[in-house]
Amino acid sequence: MGSYLVRRLAYSVFVIWGAVTIVFVVVRLIPGDPAQLMVGAEGTKADVEALRHRFGLDQPLAVQYVRYLGQAAHLDFGDSLRLEVPAAQAVSQRVPVTALLAATAMGLGIAVSMPLGIFAALHKQSVLDRAVSVISLLGQSVPNFWLGIMFILIFARELRWFPSAGTGGVDHLVLPAATLALLLVGVLTRLVRSGLLDVLDEEYVRSAYAKGLTLRRVINRHALPNMLIPVITVVGLQLGSLLAGAVIVETVFGWAGVGRLLVDAISNRDYPIVQVAILFITTGFILVNLLVDLSYAYIDPRIRYR
Amino acid sequence: MTTNFSRAPATRPPEAQARETVSQAASRLRQRRRAWRLAAWAVPIALFVAVAVVGPILVPYDPVTVRLGDRLRPPGAVLTSGTRAWLGTDQVGKDLLAQVLQGARISLLVGVATVLTAGCIGLAVGIPAGYFGGTLDGFLMRIADLQLAFPSLLLAILIAAVLGRSVTNVIITLSVTRWVTFARVVRATTLATREREFVMAARASGASTNRIMGRHIVPLTVTPLVVVATVELGLVILAEASLSFLGLGTPPDHPSWGLVIANGRDYLSTAWWISTIPGIALSLVILAVGLFGDQLSDFLNPRTVSN
Asked: What residues of chain B lie within 8 A of the CB of A38, using their CB?
């Protein structure tokens, strides 16, 4: 386990380095001058030159890259052009706000899709099973930004149950979290249903029934633990789309998280913020997947890492 | 198909070739019925393509003219010009139906162009990686791994923000973010094919490496590529709409569905139809592509049909 942990950690560091490099490559190597982009059309040539010097853009690319890596290691990406605070600080202040939204959506998604999937598997081919497949299919097809707008239209404008936008208490959290959760419900319900159907055919489940256990106990103690691994893997992988979805959903609902900050920074050409926000989200995704990998051994004692 | 000959018996009894047995006839019939069912699932997609191609000709979209007298009219309203706006008008008096039809064309264009480009990149990367293996494979697949560490929409947001808004840039952005899936599938197929008898036969008869890859391996990657392309088509259309919704996709004179939905956000209380209708169109198209993709992979791999 120890050496596996070290290897897995090293791999995560490698992937984070890769993400940092991809951001560098995209921002620096694409035709067009970031300084010119940041200054915009109204900037003078002197403004552009000053900015180029300030960000070291007048240096050779290799020098820029090494400097950039050093800065990244210290989480120092320069000051935000608009907010006049270090970009890393501006973004990290928003991290808990996004984490709250993502965690609520994740919890909501799991809380809804587990019972739905179990129910559908136990009543295979029934009308309700069909209904559950339709819901999960819709969950994967309806674009989340449009769903969010429809939620605003129905639950905020018409019914006035929840506020339509802003960051605040639980009432502000309901609509964006529900919007984000639906995608997860679509994916997870299908997975839980087919996973449980596979497990229910196994002999140990039949033995459990044969020795007189109740359905509830068979499901909870024998079937569910054996199908958790794929579910957890997919939950971890879905976190990527959840975080990317958060960027969009935060924009729809004016939720003041990292995603909203990112989209605002893009329209303001605030490149330090853009870089940090993208790196923070990606790093969060990588770390969660690391945790998911490590949790396998805990959940399934058959898995032992060498 | 050339793939069958390794599995076929070397010599078949002559009567089996001459007459069809009952079970063969039944399986042929079943095969035909499955093909028809697949074709039925393709109807909604064919409808979408027809709308995207013909629609803007019947109801032309005019990006320039603004008719403030006709702004925010509900679906079915008669405009000052005497025509009827079946889906209503937007905040500057443009017909929503024309925008939805034009948006269908943009979705289709971006979807198909991206899938083709990403598919070509996938072939160009996957075939040599799978065929040669070794350092080249390791290098290319590590790049693919690194890219997968990024949530793909996030990478698209970054690239699109740097490139700026245009239809071409959206296609470039989405191709760059989606080639990995294609490359992985092509590589896996190439790996499986590399040691097959007909490839060895080609090698033994002195075919060049390029010829083996081009003539013997590429054709076998087509089937898995088509399945992936179908799934990806839905994802790409969704990603294009998301980018356009964020103002990073198509420019304002190209009314992509995502852009129209974003436009309608400020008029939710007075004109619900601007955001609602393009979203319904978008959801239906993604649903149709998704359902067809499921049917297609079931059709091509009948043994893996799950519960």
From this structure: none
